[in-house]
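For consistency, the fold was encoded as tokens, as this record shows:
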Amino acid sequence: MAAAGAQAVGRLPRGRARRCRTHGPRPGERTRTAMSHTPFTHERPGEQPTSSQPKPAICRIADTLSEIAGLIAGAALIVATLVTGWGVFVRYVLKAPTTWQTETTIYLLICVAFLGAAYGVRHNAHVGVDLLPEALPLRGRLILRIVTTVLVLGVVGVVAWTGWTMWQQAYALDTRSASAWGPPLWVPYAFLPLGMALVFFQYLAELIEAVLALTGRLDPAHVTLLGATGEAAEIQAEIDAHAAEQSSTEQPTTEPQTTAPPEHRIERGEERP
């Protein structure tokens, strides 16, 4: 067989035989490089992004406002916790109950709920059932998310408008609480339209992202609506974390080097017996 192979190579042109022996690329031929590992995106195998353009400016502004709202909501939650602790201390230790502690805590929690809602939309943290969306291809998921977002925008818009009219009425009439403290109610009422306006703006920005991704003008990895919210996302995150931990702890294994027996070694200047 070796002789037949040598004869076959001998029949080839000189340049072609040289390429066969050296396995080098042909003149003008591009060499293939190994594919680098890409981070996890919302695409499935075979679903490649159509564009790598960044998010539009309106989407980035909405994300920034939602992040700021989340920081304010977190600060309000901390203050509400401190106020509650202070109220318990003065009531049971100092024997001097306050008149403002309970209402202040309630109003701060209202702030947490409505301002934190926009932050939850930004990070796709609201409760959702993603069984059907995850079973669809990328284009089907985008269309489904667009339809549901339009419906959600209608509901959020009605709630925001109702809250705005309630705030206007409370501010115009200087409506106050019936408690002994009696704070003006237009202050806590303002959290409802403000929070719903931020939620509306965030959903509108995510709707724009989905439409741009559907038309091929935005990378689907930038679409917040494609993020999973159910147990499947948590399980996948645990699997990815476990795989990353294993890959970081594994050490490259080397094959043990075997040495020939002393009687089979060939020393320099000596012949094998």
